[in-house]
């Protein structure tokens, strides 16, 4: 097999959770371009439709099959039903991309009220974030990964975050750059979930290695999405490359992890954060 062909995914099927979110369509585009057929799973029907529209803009003419399904991945029965439907339709995934996460939008109202603080963070909100981002990832890995193990073939890719390997610098959320002036904190739930995914990745990598199922993590950094100007500048000052990532800059890394190009890699992480974590 030539080096170029090792990056091809012809004949494979991938399931991308959180497919209706910000990066879900980007992951799908990367996999489709490599020859894979893709199933997007999301709890939002509107998100699924928007993702399919975004993906169709990227391709002209025929392209590999892309389906979208509504599924609550924190509900084990719904995920089992989805697995049965995909298997019956000949689309049982060879690749699982655990991408779903709540990542609640931070408030930027510049009022005197404080949001996202540890002191004010509700346990109900924490449980919702863990249920989707971590328990949901485990449920999908358990159901689809076990089927891969039975077939002696498969790849798990967990999309974590640079906040899995470092604490958020809350000062970036203040126009003054001072901790004392922060009014809108990045909540703790996201860091807990994404850090937990590193443990999930390592556990599954060793658990199913003898069944030829690999498990690795993609760790993206901050992605530009029209954030407030002071936040954009504060983050740029902490990134050696002096910019945020573009949404499409993780595509090739995802294909690498999903394809036989990374055939001797398991239980590891690829960090693409512009160098932020080395400072």
Query: What's the CATH topology label?
Result: Rossmann fold
Distance between the termini: 39 Å
How many whole angstroms does the radius of gyration measure? 19 Å
Instruction: Output the structural class.
Output: alpha/beta
Main pleated-sheet profile: 7 strands, parallel
The shape is globular
Per CATH, the superfamily is: NAD(P)-binding Rossmann-like Domain
* Topology, number of strands: 7
- What share of residues are in beta strands? 5-15%
For the record, the CATH class is Alpha Beta
Assembly status = single chain
Low-confidence stretches: none
The chain-level mean pLDDT equals 94
Total number of helical segments? 7
Describe this protein's structure:
This protein has 279 residues and is α/β, with parallel strands linked by helices. It is built from 7 helices and 7 strands. It has a 7-stranded parallel beta sheet with strand order 3-2-1-4-5-6-7, with helices on both faces. Helix 1 links the parallel strand 1 (13-17) and strand 2. Helix 3 packs parallel to helix 4 and helix 4 (123-151) packs parallel to helix 5 (188-207). The chain is globular, with a radius of gyration of 19 Å.
């Amino acid at each position: 097999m030539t080096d170029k062909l090792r990056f091809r995914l012809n004949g494979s099927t991938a399931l991308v959770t959180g497919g209706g979110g910000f990066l879900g369509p980007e992951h799908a585009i990367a996999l489709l371009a490599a020859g894979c057929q893709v199933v997007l799973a999301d709890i939002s029907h509107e998100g699924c439709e928007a993702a399919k529209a975004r993906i169709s803009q990227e391709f002209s003419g025929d392209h590999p099959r892309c389906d979208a399904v509504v599924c609550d991945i924190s509900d084990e029965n719904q995920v089992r039903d989805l697995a049965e439907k995909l298997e019956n339709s000949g689309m049982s995934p060879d690749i699982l991309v655990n991408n779903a996460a709540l990542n609640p939008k931070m408030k930027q109202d510049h009022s005197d009220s404080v949001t996202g603080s540890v002191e004010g963070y509700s346990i109900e909100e924490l449980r919702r974030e863990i249920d989707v981002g971590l328990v949901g990832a485990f449920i999908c890995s358990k159901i689809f990964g076990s089927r891969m193990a039975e077939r002696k073939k498969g790849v798990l890719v967990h999309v974590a975050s640079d906040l899995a390997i470092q604490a958020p610098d809350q000062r970036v959320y203040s126009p003054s750059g001072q901790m004392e002036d922060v009014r809108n904190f990045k909540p703790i739930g996201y860091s807990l979930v994404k850090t937990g995914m590193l443990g999930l990745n390592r556990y599954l990598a060793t658990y199913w290695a003898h069944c030829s199922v690999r498990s690795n993590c993609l760790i993206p950094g901050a992605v530009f999405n029209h954030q407030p100007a002071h936040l954009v500048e504060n983050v740029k000052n902490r990134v050696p490359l002096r910019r945020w990532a573009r949404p499409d800059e993780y595509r090739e890394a995802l294909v690498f992890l999903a394809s036989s190009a990374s055939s001797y890699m398991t239980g590891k992480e690829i960090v693409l954060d512009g160098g932020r974590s080395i400072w």
